[in-house]
Amino acid sequence: MIDFKQEIAKKVAKATNLEENELKNYIEIPKDNTNGDYAFPCFRLAKELRKAPPVIANEIKEKIEIDEKIIEKVEIAGGYLNFYISKELMTKEVLSEIADNENYGKSKIGEGKNIVIDYSAPNIAKPFHIGHLRSTVIGGALYKIYKYLGYNVIGVNHLGDYGTQFGKLIEGYKLWGDEYDIEKDPINELTKIYIRINQACKEDEKVLEACRNNFKKLEDGDKYCVELWEKFRKLSLQEFQRVYDLLGSEFDSWNGEAFYSDKMPEVIDILEKSGKLVESQGAKIIDLEEEGINTPCIIEKSNGSTTYATRDLAAIMYRARTYDFDKALYVTSYEQVLHFKQVFTVAKLLGLDEKYTNGLKHIPFGMVLLKTGKMSTREGNIIKLEELLNESISRAKEIIEQKNPSLENKEEVAKKVGIGAVIFNDLSNSRVKDEIFDWNTILNFQGETGPYIQYTYVRTKSVLEKVDKMPEYEEIDLKKLSDEYSQNIIKLLYNFEDTLIQVTGKEEPSILSRYLIELAKAFSSFYNENKIITEEKEVQNARVYLTYAVGQVLKKGANLLGIEMPNKM
Ligand code: ARG
To answer: Are the CB atoms for 147 and 108 separated by under 8 Å?
Structure first.
């Protein structure tokens, strides 16, 4: 497709003698259609050219050569230059591209770049709760979108499978293992053991000692301890996998914290040599006061054990060497902002190339706030993700049962709708915002929801079913799509790839969710205002084709968020 931003930048560059690609970055897409398709903000040049923005706008406009086949007109509005692209050309560009490309919007801009995304990362033997949902869903969307843009993406599930709690679990299992059926209901049963052993530790110093010993033995590779640890890990993963199957999550690496157990001595050694590692109350720490961080980073606790931070430092070294990453993203809740600040600052002492330390990026997200009441389970406030997803599916099923009782494959559709609703809800607002979880909102077919996007897609499908023969792109008279409603859609479709690029620029999948809502709304207006199936064959063909294009992009976009589309609902 023609890159219209580039075309505009070229013209402005010619008129100003400034650098084309820099100018391109300044170009905006106006919110209001009456301001054209693209706007160039002249105040960005005011400093450099030492002139007032409206004067600059005038001068550029005078000098620009317009080729009407591409740019219909240029207008000045305040300090902006507004560009109006030829409607027919844009329509042609979009529809011809969709006609011969199954993967509309796919690009190669990421070629040769490696992106590590660290996401999901639940803790072994602990419930996979709603807090992990956001990480899994946000990370999963970024994973798919980066891939689609041509990046080499490595999805890492940095499991919490290490720490003194495993010494406790081993001890508990040793004492009472046969009282619990951990094969049948692993996480619940392990949680019970954990609570019980903690109590025992409080009552008896000797038990605590035994637990510490177990952990030490585990680290030293003791057969019994390692085998048990492996068993807990395996059983927990089987349970987590049920959630991943529901969500369609993918990972390329399952290296959790334990994987770094033999890689930490190197980190400690390097830090020691840097002279920055100091003793404080028996622990080894790095003071970060000079870097403006008030809390020091603890590398080794006073009892000699390593920390979550040390393992993250070892993971940075490993990932730099193994994946040669350009960016390494960490998707966790904002509760870990300080942790990553510390770790990323200390990472600068590891002697890695700056490329790596500059590429480290924490992607924090807000909390999920529950409307108390119905959703809480026996364990109190912890909502298990699997229960939540299954509840969403059964609620979706109820709605389908009411709205469309004769629908085929109700189970399958309910699954797509129920899961899609939860995923979309998680991605619909900017990620740092806290999210309120409310069933009525997320499953509303008319709201700004996943089911609304799916419903709109299904509508495009049913329009296509009404025609005997799908028109070929070559048969379309593009002029039949010059009305406002069609043009709104064309413009959105044109901006699909740009939207995906924006997502990766800000690591913000909600940019795509908002886009899909806009597109669905634009289609609803088009559908309500324009007769698609009509006597006039030429009009019908053009509109049917546009409907098909909308369906393609809605589906592609939703899939990139991790949402599947039903054909009927
Ligand atoms: N297991 C951690 C938790 O549940 C998240 C790990 C995030 N990734 C990392 N490299 N620290 O909070």
So the answer is: no
C-beta of 87 in contact with ligand 1 (< 6 A): no
Q: Specify whether the CB–CB gap between 510 and 423 falls below 8 A.
A: no
325, 324, 315: which is closest to 267 by C-alpha?
315
435: nearest Cα among 19, 134, 76? 134
Distance in Å, CA 157 to ligand 1 centroid: 9
- Report the CATH architecture of 114-274+305-369: 3-Layer(aba) Sandwich (3.40)
Ligand 1 atom at shortest distance from the alpha carbon of 160: 1
Confirm or reject: Cβ of 120 under 6 Å from ligand 1.
no
Tens of pLDDT, residue by residue over 57-103, are 999 999 998 888 999 999 999 899 999 999 999 999 999 999 988 89
Give the list of residues 6+ apart from residue 143 with CB closer than 8 angstroms, or none. 117, 119, 153, 155, 250
Is the beta carbon of 158 within 6 A of some atom in ligand 1?
yes
- Over residues 266-308, the pLDDT tens digits come to 999 999 999 999 999 999 999 999 999 999 999 999 888 889 9
Summarised one tens digit per residue, pLDDT across range 97-151 is 999 888 999 999 999 999 999 999 999 988 888 879 999 999 999 999 999 999 9
Rounded to the nearest whole angstrom, what is the distance from the C-alpha of residue 330 to the centroid of ligand 1?
8
Q: What class does CATH assign to 385-561?
A: mainly alpha
Residue nearest to atom 11 of ligand 1 (CA): 312
**Cβ–ligand 1 contact at 123 (below 6 Å):** yes
Nearest to 444 by CA among 396, 408, 402, 406: 396
- Distance between CA 359 and CA 319 in Å, rounded? 12
* Pocket of ligand 1 contains residue 312 by CB under 6 Å: yes
Domain boundaries, the chain: 4-85, 114-274+305-369, 385-561
Between the CA of 459 and the centroid of ligand 1 the distance, in Å, is 41
CATH number among 3.30.390.50, 3.30.1360.70, 3.40.50.720, 1.20.1290.10, domain 4-85: 3.30.1360.70
Q: What local confidence, expressed as pLDDT, does residue 552 receive? A: 97
Residue 158 CA, ligand 1 centroid: distance in Å: 6
pLDDT at 68: 87
Q: Residue of the nearest CA to atom 9 in ligand 1?
A: 158
